[in-house]
Amino acid sequence: MTPSLRTRRRPGLRTFSVTLLGGLALAIALAGCTGGSDEASADRAMSGGSASDAGAASQREGGIATAADTVSSRPPAAQRSVISKGTVVLRSTDVAGARFDVRQIVDQYGGEVSEEQTDTDRDGEVVSAHLVLRIPAADFGEAMADLEDVADLRFSGRSAEDVTTEVIDTRVRLRAQRRSIARIETLLDRAQDLRDIVLIESQLTRRQADLDSLEQQAAYLEDQTSLASITVDVEHERVATDDEDRTGFLAGLSAGWHGLVAVAVALATAAGALLPWLGVLVLLALPGWPLLQWLRRRREAPAEAPVEA
Fold first, then answer.
1. Residue 85 contacts by C-beta under 8 Å, 6 or more apart in sequence?
2. Stretch 86-102: mean pLDDT, rounded?
3. Which uninterrupted H or E stretch holds 66?
């Protein structure tokens, strides 16, 4: 009986041992899997951190590049807009020639003569010329220097007015006004009610008028800043010739003749002034003359009476 019992107990012990060993092996396997999973998670975390750091670095680099691109793409500082004006007064013995030289300078710089006035004497000789020139603003200084050398310079003046702020303000207002008109036109296309259409059209008309005014102002500023204005006045200068005899017999004869003419003119003027009075005196003397003769005879009659006695 005892041996059989021992025989029966051994298989159970072996089964328990196998089960225990299998559990230990499973636990070890699970531990290994868990460790591998934790390592993989750690690796993924580290990889994710590296990726995040790389992304952050890339974003920083991209931000720096964007900032650099923004700085490089910014427009340059606005150029100065200046209205330049000049005045040149010349004196020459040949006004027509000086005027021709002035026109040559205008053509040289690609300018234009916007106004011209010429005066001549009785013989048809040009004695004065007035010209208003429009010269490219970039050549204003050189053109002024060339004009001053055309003839004898009597006066030269320059002035410059900086209108940069006004030009920029006008451009900004133009862009804003055009965008506003575009929005109004969009509203007008979508409007259905007659009252809304009338109100929108009135707003559109007013803003269109403001836009036209701004465009005219911008065109004027563009014209004044792109072309400088120069006023040139050429006057005639009479110069005595070397062969003129200002002394001696001929000079004295000429002076005497001019003096005689002056005296004659003065006497004629005086006679003309006295002539009306002489006429009045003659009219008064006509009726008074017989009376004077009668009074004279009466005074002479008593003086002759004693001689007869």
1. 158, 159, 160, 161, 228, 229, 230, 231
2. 94
3. helix 2-73
